[in-house]
Amino acid sequence: MKAVHRSDVGRVRAVNEDRAYVAALNNGYYLAIVADGMGGHQAGDIASRLAVETVVSELSALPQDLQDNQLAHALEAAILRANQTIFHIASQDEKYYHMGTTIVAALFDQSQSAGYIGHIGDSRAYTVDRQGIIQLTEDHTLVNELVKNGQIEPEDAVRHPRRNVLIRALGTDAQVEVDMMPITLGNGQYLLLCSDGLTSMMNSEQIWSTVIDPSLPLEAKADRLLGQSLDAGGDDNITIILLKQLESGTMGEGWNS
């Protein structure tokens, strides 16, 4: 598996409150995380950093050769530990009250092909291949609930004045539910993790056409996604992790970040 990541403050924000992490852990598992922080006084920056650091620390301590269901439980437990950490710090200092972050994290087994995604908020995970692009995660936002309930049309959600209001985030409450889903990447298939700074500027078709472009190496695909988001306005921080499952016989090339 090969991976690249990009993050940019965008054209409007003064601080990049996104965080990204992608690496092979020492215990043989493979981890990718995007977190998009929120809160005043740079609290969002602190929340996203704590989320990434906590999840990496928890999963780096895992024993090798976990079974499938144990891998899922480990990722969920690490995200819940991050929630406890952020909530505790926020409750100790009024500057950080209500700070929080989104998180979307993918943990792969040692074969690099099968794993789990854990998700809270509106950062997203997609699979991309020649057949199309599939959004794996469901946004935990007010407008998504309005769409699901039939109160607004999907096309209206993009322009809705409250489109950025989260109904679930990491660190804002003592208890939180993590959406968990299995993932298996086939040969040549891509996994995209991103903050909403990308998806608010580009639709799925635009993302698909860039990722699937056979003329671009992986690094150039990520660069182009970032550049296209900036060209479209860059209204928010933009963070992208793009992973590709290598063709059979090339698995040993490892991860780049």
From TrEMBL:
PPM-type phosphatase domain mapped to chain residues: 2-245
One Pfam family linked to the record: PP2C_2
InterPro entries xref list: PP2C, PPM-type-like_dom_sf, PPM-type_phosphatase-like_dom
Highest taxon of source: Bacteria
PANTHER family: PROTEIN PHOSPHATASE 1L (PTHR13832:SF827), PROTEIN PHOSPHATASE 2C (PTHR13832)
Protein name: Stp1/IreP family PP2C-type Ser/Thr phosphatase
Species annotation: Paenibacillus apiarius
